[in-house]
Amino acid sequence: MKGIILAGGSGTRLYPSTLALCKQLLPVYDKPMIYYPLSVLMLAKIREVLIISTPKDISKFETLFANGKWLGMEIDYCVQDKPEGLAQGLILAESFIDSDTICLILGDNIFYGQGLSPMLESAKQNTTEGFATIFSYHVKNPKAFGVVEMDSKGNVLSIEEKPNEPKSNYAATGLYFYDNSAIHIAKDISPSARGELEITDVNLAYLKQNRLKAQNLGRGFTWLDTGTHDSLIEAGSFVQTIELRQGYKIACLEEIALNNGWISEDIVAQRATLLSKNSYGEYLTQLLQK
User: Fold this and answer.
1) CA gap 272, 1 in Å, rounded
2) Between these two residues, 22 and 268, which has the higher pLDDT value?
3) Where are the beta strands (DSSP E) in 155-245?
4) Confidence at residue 290, expressed as pLDDT on a 0 to 100 scale
5) Cβ atoms < 10 Å from Cβ of 267
6) Would residue 214 count as lying in a domain?
7) Which residues contact 77 (CB under 8 A, 6 or more apart)?
């Protein structure tokens, strides 16, 4: 399976902060926003990742991650000249994906909770059987989201974008697992009224073929979309609270890579030296001491 992180867009809801820097590079407490979705792919044991971003921002991601070898990964980059919809990412990534299955994640989404890895593994398994899996989350105001209606077995019954009368309180998050046919589906859909290739239309195509499942993130999980100033502060406060209270770091890429057996302790030590003047570097040092 290969991973795609969508890190493009203009970030207009975060102006003026994003006039010079894309939102996925803004800090969420102690690390860049993009660390969080990348950590999800790493927890799913996905080692080959494509980051899609704008012409002016792609070089910044290359500076941040290089080729990914320091994480035991292969990280590639792709330019999206114009923001023409999330589903366009599948088309842009066609040569990168080749014949593999796909995990697509939005660069401004944060997922946290005990037991996430088994859920990711289950979604990966679904793709080998020709199914797509979306991740749902219970929200207070479903009218502001894409709403997922599902049965007790996780089969999706309907998806509606910001409905006036929601059929459930479950919102579709920015995490999607697809088999390889998603590329061809994305090519076949038409632009929406706003001129974009909508990821909802890809999901609806799977639904029509009875090939769409939903994995619900229950009460013990947190899903955050960091696309506004308020939600950015909320996300930073959440991460700060967890990290200071528990002593664990959320989305520590080096820790996940080490636990996965992708990198050696020597590489972690090098990173700890590089980051030695802050708590992130101290955390890496403590990992090695343990």
Assistant:
1) 30
2) 268
3) 156-161, 170-178, 212-217, 222-225
4) 80
5) 17
6) yes
7) 50, 51, 52, 53, 58, 61, 62
